[in-house]
Amino acid sequence: MPRRFLIGAVALSCIVFLAYYIYDYYRIPDAPEGHRITELVLPDRQGQPLALSSLRGKVVLVHFWASWCPPCREENHHWVKLYDELHPQGFTIYSISLDRHSDQWQAAIEKDRLAWPYHVSELQGWKGQNVQQFGIRSIPANFLLDERGNILGKNLTPEQVRRMLQRRHAN
User: Fold this and answer.
1) pTM for this one?
2) What is the pLDDT of residues 105-128, one digit of tens each?
3) Distances (CA, A) of 113 to 23, 77, 107, 117, 164
4) What's the Cα-to-Cα distance from 127 to each of 99, 134, 151, 161, rounded to whole Å?
5) To pair with 6 at 20 to 30 A between CA atoms, which of 22, 52, 62, 141?
6) Cα distance between residue 171 and residue 169, in whole Å
7) Best mean pLDDT range from 20-24, 91-95, 147-151
8) What share of the chain is helix, strand, coil (3-state, %, to 5)?
9) Using one digit for the tens of pLDDT, what is the confidence trace for 126-155?
10) What's domain 31-170's superfamily in CATH?
């Protein structure tokens, strides 16, 4: 009996450790709702610095993605539809690419028809300073910010963003 108990305890401990590891791996640790994202200033498509704070006054989706990420590319067409629908109401997207090669990043923007003008990248992949700062460990990942830069939510689907913004405009 004690041997079975010991084996069960070890197995349960392994399961709990694995579950916590998975949870910790996929969360974005530095950004609880209601707080602000630290200022971001990254190079845009022309290599010029583009500050996230320059978008204050708009609802902004800070969107982490990459050209080589199939789920990101699949999700992009949903973001395009949402942007087209809600941009006139003050919604925009600040896309941060985890690409390492400018030509692949630029081609993906064109191919996916990402119409918003705020595309930035350090071109350092997973080693980029902002990826590290926000604990991004999987993509796509995102933060939704209100007009003052406060975090409304994180890792939202396009439909969740639509519903949140519709509720905000209804009030």
Assistant:
1) 0.78
2) 999 999 999 999 999 999 999 998
3) 33, 8, 10, 11, 24
4) 10, 12, 24, 28
5) 22
6) 5
7) 91-95
8) 45, 20, 30
9) 998 888 877 888 999 999 999 999 999 999
10) Glutaredoxin (3.40.30.10)
H or E segment to which residue 151 belongs:
strand 151-154
Tokens of 83: 């942007």
Position 18 scores a pLDDT of: 58
Give the C-alpha separation, 108 to 135, whole Å: 24
Distance (Å, rounded) from C-alpha 135 to C-alpha 148?
23
Q: What is the C-alpha separation between 42 and 82, in angstroms, rounded?
A: 24
In this predicted structure, what is the pLDDT of residue 170? 75
Indicate the helix (H) or strand (E) that contains 145: strand 141-145
Please tell me what DSSP assigns to residue 147.
T
Q: Could you state, in order of their start, the residue ranges of all structural domains in the chain? A: 31-170
Cis ω before 140 (30° cut-off from 0): yes
